[in-house]
Amino acid sequence: MSALLWALVLLPALAGVGLLAAPLGPSPVRRAVERATPTVGISVATGVLALSAAAASVRPTASAPFLAGDPFTLAVDGLSAVVVVTVAAVSLLVLVFSAGAIRQGRARFVGLMLVFVAAVLVTATATTLLGLLMAWEVMGATSYALIAFDWRRETAVASGTTAFVVTRAGDVGLYLAAGAALAVTSGGTPGLSLDRMAHLPSPWLHVAAAGVLAAAFGKAAQLPFSFWLSRAMDGPSPVSALLHSAAMVAMGGYLLLRLHPLLLAAGWAATTAAWVGALTALLLGAVAIAQDDLKQLLAASTSAQLGFVVLAAGTTGPGAVGAGLAHLVGHASTKALLFLAAGAWLAALGTKSLPALRGAGRAYPWVGVPFTLAALALAGVPPLTLWATKESVLAAAREQSGALYAVGLAAAVASSAYAGKALTLIWRRLPDHTTGYDTEEAGTRQVGWIERIPLLPLAVGAAGLGVLVVPAVWAKVDPGTSAPTSASAGEVAVSVVLAVVVTGVALCWPQRLPAPRWAGSWLRLEQVAHAGVLRPTLRLAALLARGDAALEAAVTGTGHAGRRLADHAAAIDDVGVGGALRGVVAAARRGAGLALRPQTGQLHQYYAQASVGLAVAVLIVWLAR
């Protein structure tokens, strides 16, 4: 069965790398690859969906040796089975939409999307921190490339950089968690197993929990990391539909659901996750209400809806994980549809501005009707998907804390308000003029048939995936996890009344919706990050650079001084010591020359020298007498 799982992750990875390796430049080969790319992408995604369905059925495992005591291991269990099928299905539908929406750089776009999907599938099925870290890195790198896909636009590249850097700041937590796990490895026991993390001793347990929370909050765009999702809207609409519905953002929530035992073991970590999720759902709901750009509204609502998943991951009830997973799946289908509809209108009318999109639902009913269904699901109107899953999450929160339930219920009311705001503008009377069109790109004034295809199956998911919270259905989907928590009749009645009333008010009187000024700029989170992190970091870097320059100058000056000292020493050595030695040698040489002069080899000169020597000796004896 391992071959099935390897095929599941390698098929999109190898196909994506193959497309990315296509030759650049205007060549016949490149043109052929570009023409074939949509077919290749859809075919590969179809194969991935089939493999994911088979893997969800047979639950395979796969392992390969990598590090001593820590192999690279993948497995499909109850949680990952649901996620891999969701990711594969949404990816296929997004690639179908992309076949009509993306005209330039198709090979690069589809190649990046397939590599990204492979990384998400590995993230969902990894059983060790080793596999999780590798997939997490690839997922982050490809997300940057996809957000900055239109690299000729400086804003797109800057937004991709912001998204990458902010999420990378949280990703450091995973390395912290891995270090904590390795710190207590002994006896060859796999130290990076995800199942082992809940059994780490203190203080490593708490270090690992803190690291996992940071990484998950960053990817899931939870407070205080939420603002990167606003910048990510500069990417193509199909990228938003995949990354911010079933893939990267969802993986942050999935990580917390997967490591729910770790959060419970740490105690404080579960409480932190629950409150961060609840507050994100509420505050980013207020941000969504204040937006006049459709994609920005959907982006803020993504952070808010993932807040419900994080809230579920932090609650302690047995059905909390099931509730969070059901909401994650329902949100994936709903939000993918909303983003694709926004992309279709952007291509047709050249704008994302909600006032300019007035009447777009009437003008393009094949887009407007599915969008309406998904928006009503987002609003929590029964019996649609997110109504059922949200009720289950709120029920799990109520079992733990009344305050958590109250904040979650207020966040649900906010979701009804921002969904109603979008709907009322989409379905208002068509304007008599086209002011506001073509402000971002030249609109085509039509939505192609291929872009309409994915909207219907996604609408079915937005309407019907709420059955996951039914215990009998859940038992077949994931028998190893407790069924999602069931809400009481009173709770259901309260939430239904609130959802219907608030949605109705938003439809009839959108101008009466509270839109606080502080929420319009995403809580000024980016400005706070710049003031509290970016600018101090740059100032510290500049200070360190000046210190480094001073140190370099000192080292360079020392080198110059040493060289000058060496030159002086060399001069002294040459003139003084060297001169003295040369003088001694010269004197010795002159003495030797003088000593050699008598050595002529003539006998009579030797006699004369001996006579002189004898005379000198006699004189010395006479004088000494």
What labels describe this entry?
single chain, 625 residues, mainly alpha, 25 helices, elongated
Topology diagram in text:
Blueprint (H helix, E strand, L loop, with lengths): L1 H19 L7 H31 L2 E7 L2 E6 L2 H24 L4 H20 L3 H19 L6 H30 L20 H16 L7 H5 L5 H7 L4 H11 L1 H7 L1 H22 L4 H21 L5 H30 L10 H4 L1 H15 L5 H16 L1 H25 L22 H4 L2 H10 L6 H7 L11 H20 L8 H4 L4 H72 L6 H22 L1
Antiparallel strand pairs: 1-2
Low-confidence stretches: none
Task: Spell the H/E element sequence.
Answer: HHEEHHHHHHHHHHHHHHHHHHHHHHH
Q: Taking Cα atoms only, what radius of gyration do you get, to the nearest Å?
A: 38 Å
Going by helix content, strand content and strand pairing, the class is mainly alpha
Largest sheet: 2 strands, antiparallel
Distance between the termini: 126 Å
